[in-house]
Structure of Segregation and condensation protein A:
Amino acid sequence: MENRRYVMEYKVKIDSFEGPLDLLLHLINKLEIDIYDIPAAEITNQYLMYVNTMQQLELDVASEYLVMAATLIAMKSRSLLPDHSSEDDEFMEEEDPREELTRRLIEYKKYKEAAVKLQELEEERAKLFSRPPADMLFAQAGEGPLNVSIYDMLGAFQKMTRRKKLAVPRQTTIRREEISVETRMKSLMNKLTKAKEPILFEDLFQSHEKEELVVSFLAILELMKQNEITVTQNGNFSSLYVMSGGKNK
């Protein structure tokens, strides 16, 4: 049995990462958590899973994600301690760290919703013009926005890798052939171009080898960034589908 060795030649920085608060809001929506009563243990475990996946994929994880991870771990540890509130008045006056986090999340959510509203107003304003300025008529199409968030992509990758671990093939002697991210991008584009309908995200990962899974994922992200493919989903947190052609093509 032959196997190919995928080579990660560079790290990918995805602009869609908006910060740890954005990830926390994504998890709160996904887990249907009350933002005013955040379960420290559950949200911490989920957050660390995402950060760990980013690091495995060698994505550029900003230090602010790690600072938030440390904050959540401390918050989780505090929630596991015995409740001494009735014995120590000074302990009663200590602020619950979840309250500070809730305030930050609510404030961030307001700014994010305001940004979306401003973008909608900008798009409405743009419709008032019959055509763009003359010097833009021949401009190349820029990178199109993702139909799904980077956190949706990471969540789909997590689920896919867990399923792969449950069905690991028998070990065998193999011959390794090095393949770069660029080569994987070409093979993915070839497969997607020939497909008559969108392909399920998980179906693009045929191997059980970690290196191959990671490089395939990086190739998909890079193709999205270059506006060569589009990833969609029918509803929030539903299965992802990939098709050739960017949103603006």
User: Anything to note?
Assistant: Residues 97-126 form the longest helix (30 residues). The CA atoms of residues 90 and 104 lie 25 Å apart. Helices lie at 20-31, 40-56, 63-80, 89-93, 97-126, 150-166, 181-194, 210-225.
